[in-house]
Amino acid sequence: NADQDLAALIQDLVRRGFFRLRVRDEIVVVTAETASEIARLLKVCGELEVVLDRLVLREDDRARLVDTLETAFRESGGRCIVEIIGAGNHQYSQAYSCQSCGRTFETPKPALFSFNHPLGACPACKGFGNILHYDEDLIIPDQTKSLAGGAVEPWTKPSADWWQKKMLLAFKRRGFDVTRSYNQLSQAERTLLWEGDTGKGPVEGIKAFFEYLEGKRYKLHVRVMLSRYRSPVSCDTCKGTRLRPEALAVRVGSRTIAEVADLTIAAAAEWARSLPLSAFEREVAKDIHAMLTAKLDFLLRVGLGYLTLSRQTRTLSGGEAQRISLATQLGAQLTGTLYVLDEPTIGLHARDTATLAGILSDLAKAGNTVIMVEHDRTMIESAHFVVEMGPAAGEKGGEVVCAARYPEFLVHPTALTARYLSGQETIPVPRLRRKGTGRALVLVGATEHNLKNITVKIPLGTFTCVTGVSGSGKSTLVEETVYRALARAFRVENLPMGRFEAIGGVEHLHGVRLIDQEPIGRTPRSNPATYIKVFDDIRRVFAAFPEARRTGLTPGDFSFNTVGGRCEACQGSGLQKMEMYFFEDIYATCDVCEGRRFQPKILAVRHRDKSIHDVLNMTVAEAQSVFANTTSISVKLRLLASVGLGYLRLGQPATTLSGGEAQRLKIAGELVGLTASRAARGLLYILDEPTTGLHMDDIKKLLTVLSRLVDAGHTVLVVEHNLDVIKTADWVIDLGPEGGDLGGEVVATGPPEALVTERASHTGQALQKYL
């Protein structure tokens, strides 16, 4: 029994020579008379301490002290207590341990602080920082629907209609009104719907349905279906830090590694520089500390101080990713190296562009060669040598127009870029700026991310630019807050909104459009011609020819997406997939139609000696001359050319378009809509950096197109860094003054001229030489 076990423990201590014990801060000597009393005390208090030695420290007692401590650590598993008379108890441990709770930790290793390593990853979320759960908003997207009316979206699928029927019967037996909308159900009814009930007349709810599907996860289509109804939520164990508790128990300068990772690069650099290290700690960490501060400083030099260290790379813009790579190369301090950069100024404010130009110049001075594809005026002006390709785009390009040192390039007579840089060609400042309709969209109390409870007024019927240095909160304000609030109001999308108090003026709008740089299609079948619906008109033209009528061909037969006239061997794609099993599938030209997509009878119908396949291979500019007399086609092609896409082939797969090309194609699509019918006035068009990848001449064309939207009665809201665009705006909202935590405030608002007088506005200062 317990008493006998305690007595045996005490006897074992005595047998091993430990006669003194401390119970409740009192030292007792174990004897036959005191053994039972000590056992009783131990039973009450739950612990006793073995006294190994008592001594007055002298110089010649060092060996005795070391021997005693070694015995203590050996007998107690690496822990001991030293009581100094008058100074209290002091706990010591051979392992890393907490003196408050006694918890011990393994010796830290670098892998412990990596969420990509099993040693450091949170065991609950496996280092992802979030856990997928079934989302009510995805499962029941429209809460105004009833259960009978298809409120539970997965139950409306043909593969699950049997479950829907079974559930409706079960709910009716329970007296559940299946015709009431979901948002009218009581909490008890919702619980029954989700959790079910195994009692009398069992009901299997939504959770049981997904548990049933989980058992069939080995089927690909089931996994795809399950993924549609799950969304990530922050892991409760690691609170989104992605690391196990042992890693988060280590602090440097009062911060855990997760807290440091959530700092901006600028804040992390300041933290690293101001670490309160002792002389010993400074010596130990000397090399690591030097590398850390140097790498953070390199990131600051390339204008990335606003990014957080924990920012996921998939959320970075192309320019940001390139500048991170550039910072890595700066740290390597190589010489004799060729660096190739593709538009590194994407997403970079004019203030930081000059800094980037200086960094690239330093690389060249160190004995390296830097080749850069760029449209930015400042970067071109800083180049030693300029190669101008052209003279135009697409079929009219591909030649070297000029290759010379910058001074000679600037006076070249035919180089279009040189004409803009020398002032022979310009993007003019408007003589008058629009006043708008007198109404405004007003967002009050925006606080998402780094926004500092700001209120913003967007005049309707104007071309408005939101500006500011990188990381100042522009995209957070425009896309995550304004767009998502309006998208929800107009039932376009139901995405999580940025935090704000109120939004006014929505009643003056008829809708919202986000013209972003996402692809226009996910398959090669989507192309510019199908996107703006000019291919419908082209098919009607071909179907109207006598040879088409004689054989009974219709416009549908000239489509590569439908059965009839397309080549069935490749189903109209012109390519055949070859499965490689252990390797990535490859695509080869169809050996039946030889890549022409259509059957011979379709290709035999010709317009100006061009088959439907030939037309799809034409550029927009070439097609304009072929269909000049067909108004329905020429108008749409002219709109494509007006947004700088005259070089695209009509049948070019959507998957090969850049983000900027996709965005301009969407703008053209909106213009086609305005031309085709009298569109509703009062739409808000939102664009995020539409000048990405555009030459100055293309920017001039783009501004003309955006002005057409405003003149048609709409409002255009643009996030932009390009000063040629900003100077033409009717209204500017400048955020800042800096990026990250030092941003998120409204620095200045008004026409561009008003920003020039605001000394705190970096945009205003950069605009001075443009106005």
Structural commentary:
The protein has 771 residues and is an alpha/beta fold. It has five domains: 2-104, 2-Layer Sandwich (Ribulose 1,5 Bisphosphate Carboxylase/Oxygenase); 130-234, Helicase, Ruva Protein, domain 3, CATH 1.10.8.280; 272-421, P-loop containing nucleotide triphosphate hydrolases (Rossmann fold); 440-518 and 683-770, P-loop containing nucleotide triphosphate hydrolases (Rossmann fold), CATH 3.40.50.300; 528-656, Up-down Bundle (ABC transporter ATPase like fold), CATH 1.20.1580. It has a six-stranded mixed sheet, sandwiched between helices. Strand 10 (338-342), helix 15 and strand 11 (369-373) form a beta-alpha-beta unit. Helix 1 (2-15) crosses helix 2, helix 13 (286-301) crosses helix 14 and helix 21 (534-543) packs antiparallel against helix 26 (631-642). The longest helix is centred in the last third of the chain and has 18 residues, at 659-676. The mean pLDDT is 89.
The shape is globular
Class of the largest domain, according to the CATH hierarchy? Alpha Beta
Summarize the main sheet: 6 strands, mixed
How are the strands of the biggest sheet laid out side by side? 18-21-22-16-23-24
CATH topology heading of the largest domain: Rossmann fold
Proportion of strand residues: 15-25%
- CATH A-level architecture of the largest domain: 3-Layer(aba) Sandwich
